[in-house]
Amino acid sequence: MSQIGAPVRRLDYRPPEWTAETVELTFELDPDRTRTTARTLLRRAAGDGPAPVRLDGRDLELESVRVDGRALGPEEYELTGDALVLPPRTGRIEVEVVTLLEPKANTALTGLYASGGTLLTQCEPEGFRRITYYPDRPDVLASYTCTLVADEEAFPVLLSNGDRRDAGRLPDGRHWVTWVDPHPKPSYLFALVAGRLGHLDGTFRTRSGRDVALRVYAEESALPRCGHALEALRAAMAWDEERFGLEYDLDTYTLVGVDDFNMGAMENKGLNIFNSLYLQADPETATDDDFAAVETVVAHEYFHNWTGNRVTCRDMFQLSLKEGLAVYRDERFSGDRRSPGVQRVRDVRALRERQFAEDAGPQAHPVRPDEYREISNFYTWTVYKKGSEVIRMLHTLFGEEGFRRGLRAYVTRYDGQAATCEQFVEAVGEANGTDLTQFMRWYEQAGTPVLDVTAHHDAEARTCTLTVRQSCPPTPRQPYKQPLHIPLTLALLGPDGRHLPLRLADETAPTGTERVCELREPVTTLTFADVPERPVPSLLRGFSAPVRLRLPLTAEERLLLAARDDDPFVRWESLHGFFVDLLLERYRAGDAPRADGAADAPHPPLPQALVEALGGLLTEDGTDPALAALMLELPCFGTLFGLLDEVDPVRLTAVLDRTRQELAHTLRERFLACHRRLDDGRPYVFAAADAGRRALRNTCLGYLAELEDPEVASLLHRQYAMADNMTDRLAALTALADRTDGEEALAEFGERWRDHPLVLDKWFSLHARSRRPDAPARVRRLIHHPAYSEANPNRVGALVIAYCFDNPAHFHAADGSGYAFAAEQIRRVDALNPQVAARLAGCFDGWRVLDPARRELVLRTLGSLREAQGLSAETSEIVNNALAP
Ligand code: TRP
Ligand code: ZN
Predict the structure, then answer these.
(1) Sequence-ordered list of residues with C-beta below 8 angstroms from that of 597, at least 6 positions apart, any chain
(2) In whole angstroms, what separates CA 58 from the centre of its chain?
(3) C-alpha of residue 261 to centroid of ligand 1, in Å
């Protein structure tokens, strides 16, 4: 049987009985045997009278314990499985513990571990307790001094948080460096790095005129690809100053990239550590999306310096306090770098694909969870992305100025402290004279709310009445929900596509053509005056709230919005909705046997108006090509899956494939012409306009690749061979990887990039996502490829996670072979890295909406996982939740 921990509950929070004031750490680093000395000055905090001193620690080899300089015998302390406990006392105490670690053997990548020849730490959420005994909770803030001692030859670079104070050499070939971090911080923000790394330098002058030395460390060979990250960092620093008046607070700011990392990056104070994937980018090896992701993640970590580091979280339940705020700013920053509207569509699309599914499944939880077993399982789409949407709604309610005022009030009030989500919301509310008690429910209630809207036009009274009903489906442990405070941004379009001035029936004059209506009740009625003709409602503009909107619109109304609305999200959403209805209709029609008894499913034809609308996007109709590319894309599998019941995933993917083919046939000439027109032959630059043109051009290529004709084949091969950048090359190869004529190119690519891990990951992913019938066999073979490693999270992500999440036709094979493969991989990876295995185990989360035969298969697979010997607590939690009734 697997081991699962007892739940931790938010309402059980108690302030720490002992807090730490200063910590002096000494690491004698060695990949095989590292000795760590931690001398902590502790002070009795909450409560009075004597209390035991409890220091968290896991899987540590303890060498010695001293209290106020005196060595303790083993009878003077207690070692439980997860703590070192000293007898009750009060006042102050200096505890020195010496522990021994074997970084090289640490495959979980939390605590102190090795990536290649580099030693580094990852302490969030609970890694520090895997380094030494310490009160490892975010509301214990202390000042850190850290001395690193290591062989100078193998580890010439020794880094930790804060400023470098001192360094020296030892007679035995080792050297040492001491770092001092002046800002008190929780242990999860501690970091060290030791290795043979090169660096790239820059500077940034803050608004107040201080010069900050910026430095990116990476392996020497990767440095030429780190310039983009450095540039992104400068831009993010300037942006946070300009938008929110938030300035950096140390003299140096360091980024380090490593190849083995469980997540995207980590905001350790002054020493951010990155998965190489989010630090490196150049035209030859990175796509436009990779370039954009580097900017986003670099900015995200930087933004944590104020929201997360200066103001930290009281407890891990408040995770969204820092993550929501950092994601919100990284999304806005990324929008400002390129196009706010296009960025918004991309962010919404990701949210709806991932977070909506999470909110509808067995792992659903509020933005601020009420309980957890394994906190590392709560770095979720809900905490990050829905958390960001909640912040964005505050911005929508109070406007740019009001929001800025609120954020500044919060940061000023809680600087240097550990805060809660309520405290943030209260600070923003107070700064704007608004009571946000009801708004707090966004943090408390799980599930995606639904808005059911009906529109009624009264020709005689010249009014239009919108009736908006809100509801929220039940989620685990939350059967009933209270109404939420929802900002609904709306406009009305006349039949000619023009925006109408908006005046509510009880107002005297219109106030513009767009407005934010605040919903608080289960039902809200909004009556607009001076509406001569039946208007087309443009609702939830900019996706003003993370809800499902149900608004019955005719095909004509949808196409009018898609063509004429001035809100990019509504334009995209209108076409997207059109596609969704068409695909669902086609899928459902497949259920019914055809009247003539033919085997082929009936097939509602492509509406001519849709074809026209798509054709329009392929000509120079003034639409931003980046937006056109998004509008042309069919809804993904997950979106449709989430709207159905008793799903046969194989048939659903077939409907998607056939519709793609049909569009390719119908619009062949237009796709070809657009692809030709956008080929300007200019050398690659990562700039918004160029990237947008490439996106549209490659969307065309993707459709064309559905066709068998020789012209298309040669187009694909030509683009693959001639491209001067990874974006165009990979677009061609992605299409080729689905085709029988793609073998040679695929092999060439694998060979050419065999020594470049990030590009090789793309190669693994192409196999994992391929629609070819032999994809499952090839994926199983690639598990034994010499370059495959189940110890490397990026590689597992590129092959196994990509296959199980993004290749539904094969993963859901009717014989259950995909499920069996996933289970086997989960167990293998779990033995090395529980966090990655737990992520992979999420591939079964949607099982309840599968057809009965597949449900049975998944149930058996999950059941066998639950009974598996020695499964980690992390993975067990995911499996148990998936099985919970
Ligand atoms: N705080 C990190 C962020 O920027 C998340 C993170 C990095 C993390 N490494 C981790 C979370 C390891 C859990 C485990 O979002
Ligand atoms: Zn973060």
Answers:
(1) none
(2) 28
(3) 10
pTM over 0.90: yes
Q: Give percent helix, percent strand, percent coil of the chain, each to the nearest 5.
A: 45, 20, 35
547: left (phi over 0), alpha (psi -120 to 50) or beta: beta
**Which has the closest alpha carbon to 372: 885, 884, 873, 882?**
873
Place of tokens 């849709």: 610
Does residue 383 have its Cβ closer than 6 Å to ligand 1? no
**How many CA atoms does the CB half-sphere of 287 hold within 13 Å?**
17
| Predicted local distance difference test score (pLDDT) of residue 592 | 42
Which residue among 124, 267, 301, 557 is the active-site one? 301
Amino acid identity for residue 146 in this structure: C
The continuous run of DSSP H or E covering 99 comes out as strand 92-101
Can you give the pLDDT at residue 680?
82
DSSP codes, 44-73:
E-SSSS-EEEEEE--S-EEEEEEETTEEPP
Q: Which of 185, 262, 874 for mutating ligand 1's site (highest number of atoms within 8 Å of CB)?
A: 262
φ/ψ (deg, to 5) at 801:
-65, -40
The conformation of residue 672, written as its DSSP 8-state character, comes to H
Domains (ranges, CATH) in the chain? 8-196 (2.60.40.1730), 313-444 (1.10.390.10), 450-554 (2.60.40.1840), 753-885 (1.25.50.10)
Query: Which residues of the chain are modeled with pLDDT < 50?
Result: 1-2, 592-599, 601-602
Who's near 884: CB < 8 A, 6+ residues apart? 362, 476
What's 91's DSSP letter? S
438-459 burial, b at 16+ Cβ within 10 Å, e below that, comes to: ebbbbbbbbbbbebebebebee
Residue 411: closest CA among 634, 249, 614: 249
